[in-house]
Amino acid sequence: MRIIVNGAGGQMGRVLCAMIDENPATELAARVSVEFTPDPENRVFASIADCDADADCIIDFSHHTAVPTLCAYAAEKKLPLVIATTGLTAEEQAAADKAAETVPVFRSANMSLGVALVAALAKTAAKALPGANIEIVEAHHNRKLDVPSGTALLLADAIKSVRPESTYNIGRHENGKRTDAEIGIHSLRLGGEVGMHEIHFATGTQVITLKHQAQTRALFAEGALSAAAFLVKQAPGCYCMDDLFA
Ligand SMILES: NC(=O)c1ccc[n+]([C@@H]2O[C@H](COP(=O)([O-])OP(=O)(O)OC[C@H]3O[C@@H](n4cnc5c(N)ncnc54)[C@H](O)[C@@H]3O)[C@@H](O)[C@H]2O)c1
Predict the structure, then answer these.
(1) Residue 85 Cα, ligand 1 centroid: separation in angstroms?
(2) Which has more pLDDT, 194 or 100?
(3) Among 120, 150, 184, 190, which residue has the fewest nearby CB atoms (within 10 Å)?
(4) H or E stretch at 81
(5) 106 CA from centroid of ligand 1 (Å)
(6) Closest ligand 1 atom to Cα of 35
(7) Which of 187, 154, 158 is nearest to 170 (CA)?
(8) Nearest residue to 84 (alpha-carbon basis) of 73, 70, 101
(9) What is the mean pLDDT of residues 48-60?
């Protein structure tokens, strides 16, 4: 599988390119990143618009503002597109949906297969324990800007999909009893923490805890490659982590 990596100069892009290089089943078709000095002979580009490499798909770990141009490129070149970049505006999401009319497009705020599994287990637990109090705790490094993490919200949304009455209490800080419907979401910011998510289900007689601990950013690159391998066999449309387990 020949892959164009958009955002190849960033933290995730570098990890992904190294993984593609090491894997005999994958080949780096091109590296694209705004800070690169173009070197077309070595398939290095500063802009996706200049990229003329033969490829089977694109994986994007760049910046949300890059997404509309990238989607137009993918649709024009008929290339399946994995969007791992987060923080898309409604307009940028609409650009991804539009591209999905022409090519398969995969999106997830968390490419970790383990987090997708935890989300599936959380749905099972929320259904099996309808009266349980549910609290989510997440921890990330001290440079993280968004609170709570997109993954904590993704997990809460998974629970809400089977318990529609759920409300979110983000960063509980007022006196008073919790309601039965609420999902508490709590954020810790600790040194170099890569990413930890815990979901507690308390029935009154027992507490069940699901926990995911990211140990290296490589897991997101690994998940993006699994998504790409899946995506190149699909028809045009929108895909997400649930589709990998279907
Ligand atoms: N879905 C996931 O599992 C997951 C995991 C980690 C990071 N992310 C997301 O991936 C994105 C990148 O993360 P990062 O930590 O590597 O960030 P980063 O800032 O280290 O890297 C981003 C790279 O994209 C490049 N870039 C910016 N605009 C571009 C454009 N228009 N065209 C091409 N390249 C462009 C930047 O120059 C930079 O090299 C972020 O949105 C982050 O939230 C998602």
Answers:
(1) 6
(2) 100
(3) 190
(4) strand 81-83
(5) 16
(6) 37
(7) 187
(8) 70
(9) 97
Predicted pLDDT at 119: 94
Distances in Å between the alpha carbon of 172 and those of 128, 153, 168, 178, 195?
26, 15, 10, 9, 21
- Cα(171) to ligand 1 centroid in Å equals 27
Query: Which of 117, 158, 111 lies closest to 134, judged by CA?
Result: 158
Terminal-to-terminal C-alpha distance of the chain: 22
Tokens of 189: 């910011």
Query: What is the per-residue pLDDT for 110?
Result: 87
pLDDT at res. 88: 87
Show the domains of the chain with their CATH numbers: 2-111+218-245 (3.40.50.720), 113-213 (3.30.360.10)
Which helix (H) or strand (E) covers residue 59, if one does? strand 57-60
Average the pLDDT over 83-106 and give the result: 95
Relative to the CA of 84, which ligand 1 atom is closest? 1
- Residue 109 — very low, low, confident or very high, per pLDDT cuts 50/70/90? confident
Q: What's the mean per-residue pLDDT of the chain?
A: 95
Extended strands (E) in 122-229: 133-140, 167-170, 182-189, 196-202, 207-213
